[in-house]
Design brief:
The protein is of the alpha+beta class and about 375 residues long. The chain contains nine helices and eight strands. It binds a DNA duplex (14 and 14 nucleotides) through helix 4, strand 2, strand 3 and helix 9.
DNA sequence: GCTATTTGACCATG
DNA sequence: CATGGTCAAATAGC
């Protein structure tokens, strides 16, 4: 139905993104014009946002069909065969042409998604704590489990509980690592477009905007996005003020290259007061070129401990070399039991949020989008 | 009775 | 053809 409406909203969103990019560029220029001792940091932040917003804009343009290819990833790793049969990718990203849903219903779903992905590693308590860590602030429903070749543990497949009611396309795969039973690999796919009512944690959906623009949320989404955009800077600044970043194992000096930096694990210590997930999200937004695609780190579950996560991309040794373009090293793992238990106790508070290692799926951005995250906060 | 999970089957992809 | 991702019927739990 309101296809055009949705399209317009997408366009509006795109415009707002572009507008924001312009503002950022202006700010950057101003910074460079009047350098201060914080210029570098600020500039980096701005650049990060620029990248993020640019990517976002590209994505929006593609998903809205502004480009010739409706959704041609900037680096078509996995979707190399974006064959016409890729009904899923289309429907998953459908911007305003979902009226043929009825026709493709079945076909659609079994297609592999080409939604943006990112990976997190979540560590649970060594005590086998099933609690908390996987509660990322969203409600997930398990829809499958699969034994993965070479992995000791099966992989669990989850989708947003509100998939049906709100059309939220977010999914995640959870797998326990072989190496460390307390560590789970979580691969998020797509962003939440749902309004998670059960989740009272503020901001858990803060940036569920970019890809799947559904139904009637468009206006809200649009607004949200715009608001968020206008606050990104503030968020970033406040984050810089409040975050304590510890870089393990490597001195900042030694890292000349992005790669090196990627191999450094960084951990962020949030203030004892649970940070607003909105902030987290925004930070993630700034960190992740994918812009709106952020994992719900906001492991908000009222756990103070959860306000900690670390980035250690190097854990992902197989960055983008592996399977199907999602460069994840196949971590053998399985999460299922834990997750199952979790789903029953998602509200548990003692979630020692483990390590979250965001890895961006090449799907939507090129490798040059790698951002020197280690220097954002210092 | 409703909702979530389990699990075998189906299907796309490489 | 092997593998991984998803569906949907059966089952379990509340």
């Amino acid at each position: 139905m309101e296809n055009t409406d949705t399209g317009e909203n997408q366009s509006m969103l795109l415009l707002s993104e572009l507008s924001f990019i312009q503002q950022l560029a202006t700010q950057l220029e101003a910074q460079l014009r009047e350098p201060s001792n914080s210029t570098i940091e600020i500039s980096k932040s701005i650049v990060a946002q620029l990248l993020s917003k640019t990517e976002n804009s590209i994505f929006l343009a593609n998903s809205c069909g502004l480009g010739s290819n409706r959704r041609e990833p900037t680096s078509p790793l996995r979707s190399a065969s974006a064959s016409p049969a890729s009904g899923m990718s289309q429907s998953a990203f459908r911007c305003h042409d979902d009226n043929d849903d009825n026709n493709n219903k079945r076909e659609v779903s079994k297609k592999r998604k080409t939604l943006p992905k990112w990976r997190s590693q979540v560590k649970v308590g060594s005590t086998g704590g099933v609690e908390g860590p996987l509660d990322d602030g969203h409600s997930w429903r398990k829809y499958g489990q699969k034994d993965i070749l070479g992995a000791k543990h099966p992989r669990g497949y989850y989708r947003c509980t509100y998939r049906n009611s709100q059309g939220c396309q977010a999914t995640k795969q959870v797998q326990r690592t072989d190496d460390n039973p307390t560590v789970f690999d979580v691969i998020y796919q797509g962003t939440h477009t749902c309004i998670n009512k059960s989740n009272t944690r503020p901001g858990s959906n803060i940036s569920c905007t970019t890809n799947n623009n559904n139904n009637n949320n468009n206006n809200n989404i649009n607004n949200k996005q715009m608001v968020q955009s206008s606050h990104d800077q503030d968020y970033l600044n406040s984050l810089k003020a409040t975050l304590t970043i510890k870089t393990k194992g490597l001195g900042p000096s030694g890292l000349g290259q992005q790669e090196a930096q990627h191999c450094n694990s960084m951990s962020f210590s949030f203030p004892s007061t649970p940070i607003e997930s909105g902030h987290v999200a925004t930070m993630a937004d700034n960190y992740f070129p994918s812009g709106g695609f952020l994992p719900s780190f906001a492991n908000s579950s009222a756990t103070s401990e959860s306000n900690y996560f670390s980035l250690s991309p190097c854990v992902i040794s197989g960055y983008d070399t592996g399977v199907g373009g999602f460069g994840l090293r196949k971590v053998d793992s399985d999460l299922t039991e834990v997750v199952s238990a979790l789903s029953a106790t998602t509200s548990t508070t003692n979630s020692p949020m483990g390590d979250i290692d965001p890895v961006f799926d090449e799907l939507d951005f090129d490798t040059h989008f790698q951002i020197d995250t280690s220097s954002f906060f210092s």
